[in-house]
Specification:
about 400 residues; mainly alpha; two-stranded parallel ribbon; globular
Length: about 400
């Protein structure tokens, strides 16, 4: 949860669970395609800044990020040979092909240039987000100063947090909010709803976006271990999975409390101050209600776009990056203003997984290019009629996975 207290206490505190922050000297050594490169000198002059590298573990395959985070990936590949080094054992390895992705990206960028679609937030969007964030902070302060307010104020605050803070953090963490990467860095640092922004960029930008719904995706985890929530038929089944349709919502409610205050205590951060502040101001029951509702909204909205029966089938996957990004996610139409606001841009998840460093507002304007290309290449492109249809399909799938 984006909380004013954390921002005021220490907005520039940087701690993390990512490998480079554990008193380990980073080597900045990565595999791209079939070769390994020592980029320790390159990161110092990287046009996008060093932050992106600081959240990548050494000796991993970062090919998907090279393609998805650069307008012209081929230009990056051309300057790599001088950094080539000896081969090492690589974790998180992949051998995707990228020909279709490069072709589609060229079409998308051409469309954006011709129609003057911004690659970052427009001035109007920046003004809107500042206004909404100010309104959110004002509402937070009002709730803290008036502990007797009815519970619908906490519902309002949760909806504003989900629609405003999650959107701003999500796009800043993907380097798509501002062209100035320093602004993106500090925005994501101050507005992170759960753990540290570094941990999110490692777990989400790298593991999830590069290896969506595969064994390397930490949010999916299909390596055969026991799963609290079983997502796919090839994941191990345990006795308690038979009850997951019942306890899933309870787990979602505890997401914020676990990754916020609890993890902040374990990792020496100040997020726990936000929990203490709310406990002191509005009491135990209202604080628990607020944090639980925020956790439920965030987790459910994120899950609906990825954990569907169409998205977890191994037979649908190919050794092609674009194809896998398309089939591992689905869209749901949010034509009404409230639902689109609440889902903070995740209603166009297919486009987001293909082009994670473009803002959601711009993705909507190039959606037709992607749909046409997928149709031309016979790549599945799936949409639900509404968010509520997505929830129904998701819960039906979770129930199916609870059965032997």
């Amino acid at each position: 949860m984006c909380l004013l207290t954390y921002f005021l206490v220490n907005p520039f505190r940087i701690n993390s669970l990512t490998p480079n922050r554990l008193n380990i000297q980073m080597k900045y050594r990565y595999k791209i395609h079939d070769k390994v490169y020592d980029l320790s000198e390159f990161v110092k002059i990287h046009p996008g800044g060093q932050d992106m590298f600081n959240n990548l573990p050494d000796d991993t395959n970062i090919t998907p990020m090279v393609y998805s985070y650069h307008k012209n990936p081929k230009s990056i590949l051309e300057m790599l040979p001088k950094y080539e080094t000896s081969t090492v054992a690589v974790q998180y390895d992949t051998n995707f092909t990228y020909d279709n992705y490069v072709e589609l990206k060229a079409l998308v960028i051409k469309e954006m240039h011709e129609k003057k679609i911004p690659f970052y937030w427009s001035t109007q969007e920046i003004a809107y987000n500042i206004a909404m964030l100010s309104l959110y902070f004002g509402t937070t302060g009002y709730v803290l100063c008036n502990p007797t307010l009815p519970y619908y104020w906490l519902v309002l605050l949760s909806v504003m947090n989900t629609g405003t803070c999650n959107l701003i953090f999500h796009e800043a963490s993907h380097y798509s909010a501002f062209k100035n990467q320093t602004l993106n860095y500090y925005t994501s640092l101050c507005l992170y709803p759960f753990a540290t922004e570094n941990f999110w960029k490692y777990r989400h930008n790298f593991q999830h976006h590069c290896f969506t719904n595969t064994e390397h995706d930490i949010d999916f985890a299909c390596k055969g271990e026991e799963q609290t929530i079983r997502h796919a038929p090839y994941q191990k089944y345990t006795w308690y999975n038979s009850f997951q349709t019942i306890y899933i919502f309870l787990l979602f409610q505890f997401t914020l409390l676990y990754y916020g205050p609890f993890k902040s205590l374990v990792n020496n951060r100040q997020n726990w101050i936000s929990l203490v502040s709310f406990l002191y101001a509005i009491g135990l029951y209202k604080t628990f209600f607020l944090f639980s509702l925020n956790g439920l909204l965030f987790t459910l909205i994120a899950q609906v776009s990825h954990i569907q029966p169409e998205c977890v089938v191994l037979d649908n996957r190919k050794n092609e990056f674009l194809h896998n990004q398309a089939i591992s996610s689905l869209n749901y139409r949010t034509d009404d203003i409230f639902t689109r606001f609440l889902c903070f841009g995740l209603d166009i998840q297919i486009e987001h997984h293909m082009f994670p460093n473009f803002p959601h507002s711009s993705l909507r304007k190039i959606q037709h290019v992607i749909k046409d290309y997928c149709k031309k290449k016979d790549i599945p492109y799936r949409e639900k009629a509404s968010f509520f249809e997505g929830i129904f399909s998701y819960m039906k799938h979770i129930h199916t996975m609870s059965l032997r």
